Amino acid sequence: MSEYFDSELEEILRRKQAELQRRLAEEQQKREAELREAQRQALLRRILTPAARERLNNVKLVRPELAHIVEDQIIALVQAGRLRPPVDEDIVKQLLEAVYEQTRYEPRIRIKRK
């Protein structure tokens, strides 16, 4: 009977330890993601003019995925040397329009008559 309780206790402890390890891993991933995002925002602050940053923030309120794609493009273009900082609002507008044209979805309604 004692062995049954010992094995049951060991199983409970093993499950608790596995849960604790999973939580620690999730917290570590969350902290790493927050750090990457903070570094990304710091880089964008150095690259963009205040007006361009404000425009991207406004777009981010409505279409966060579009703003994220444009931010990634701006970072990539600056790192590749194809854009020179500071990136102004006009360039951000052009990139937003280009990405919007590529990613927009226009629903079509088709009526099939018999």
Strand content: under 5%
Biggest sheet layout: none
How would you sum up the global shape?
A: flat
Number of strands: 0
Radius of gyration: 25 Å
Order of helices and strands: HHHH
Task: Give the distance, in angstroms, between the N- and C-terminal Cα atoms.
Answer: 75 Å
Can you characterise this structure?
- This protein has 114 residues and is mainly alpha-helical.
- It has two domains: 1-47; 48-105, no CATH class.
- 80% of the residues lie in helices and 0% in strands.
- The chain contains four helices and no strands.
- The protein has helices at residues 2-47, 50-62, 64-80, 89-103.
- The protein is flat.
- The N and C termini lie far apart (75 Å).
Layout of helices and strands:
Elements: H1 2-47, H2 50-62, H3 64-80, H4 89-103
Spell out the key features of this protein:
114 residues, mainly alpha, 2 domains, 80% helix
Outline:
This protein is mainly alpha-helical. The chain is 80% helix and 0% strand.
